[in-house]
Automatic annotation (TrEMBL):
NCBIfam families: PPOX_FMN_DR2398. This is Pyridoxamine 5'-phosphate oxidase N-terminal domain-containing protein. The lineage of its organism: Bacteria, Pseudomonadati, Pseudomonadota, Alphaproteobacteria, Hyphomicrobiales. InterPro entries: Pyridox_Oxase_FMN-dep (IPR024029), Pyridox_Oxase_N (IPR011576), Split_barrel_FMN-bd (IPR012349). Signal peptide: none annotated. Transmembrane segments: none annotated. Residues 38-158 form the Pyridoxamine 5'-phosphate oxidase N-terminal domain. Residues 199-216 have a biased composition (Basic and acidic residues). Gene3D superfamilies: Electron Transport, Fmn-binding Protein, Chain A (2.30.110.10). It comes from the Bacteria. Residues 189-216 are annotated as: Disordered.
Length: 216
């Protein structure tokens, strides 16, 4: 595939140039931003089993990490503060290291079946308060830490992206088997995937076993 090169004359380099491409936003969109978790935002978060956490390090590199758990896993501590449990992962710690360096985070809450989403922006800290962690335990296992977010901005996001993508439409579900398995992809990208189907199948089974043992 030929490398794509951006022609500088087509690059938008300042905000006035950007805004000149679009009509002015309507009043409701400008006013919807809140500085606290009102009853609607709290109700949305309590229904959500999934949130994407956007972070950025001091070097400017950005990262988005998915977090999922039983419905309502993100704790609302007060109208300005929420807490996200950090469950076992691969220990790359990309998001957590970014938060240590730069506390600004963006959250996107998703509810299965809902086309609209909830966006929350704020400043995060990594907290190891035993009482808080114990309150977030699942199957008798508490997280090692929680991401506590002080909310600066919260607002609902419209349904256009989810409707364009048909994300929840069963007629648009794709067959996972049409691509190699996760283990096959990871091995192919790193040490090399084995050509033996039985060996790949065994590695897939080992991964599923690890999922069962290490979700919490």
């Amino acid at each position: 595939m030929k490398e794509y090169t951006v022609d500088p004359k087509f690059v938008i380099s300042d905000e006035p140039a950007l805004r000149s491409l679009f009509e002015a936003t309507h009043t409701l969109a400008a006013l919807k931003s809140q500085d606290a978790l009102d009853t609607h935002a709290q109700a949305f978060i309590r229904r959500s089993p999934f949130v994407c956490v956007g972070t950025q390090g001091l070097d400017g590199k950005a990262d988005v990490s998915p977090r999922g758990d039983p419905v309502g896993f993100v704790r609302i501590l007060d109208e300005h503060t929420l807490a996200i449990p950090d469950r076992p992962g691969n220990n790359r710690l990309d998001s957590l290291a970014n938060i240590v360096a730069n506390p600004n985070v963006g959250l996107l809450f998703i509810i299965p079946g809902f086309d609209d989403t909830l966006r929350v922006n704020g400043k995060a800290s990594l907290v190891t308060d035993p009482d808080l962690l114990e309150s977030m335990s699942v199957n008798g296992r508490s997280p090692r830490l929680a991401i506590v977010v002080r909310v600066d901005e919260v607002f609902m996001h419209c349904a256009k992206a989810f409707r364009r993508s048909h994300l929840w439409d069963p007629d648009h579900l794709q067959d996972r088997r049409e691509m190699p398995s996760l283990m096959n992809i990871l091995l192919d990208q790193t040490t090399g995937a084995p050509s033996d189907d039985d060996e790949i199948r065994k590695k897939d089974e080992d991964l599923e076993d690890e999922y069962r043992k290490t979700l919490y």
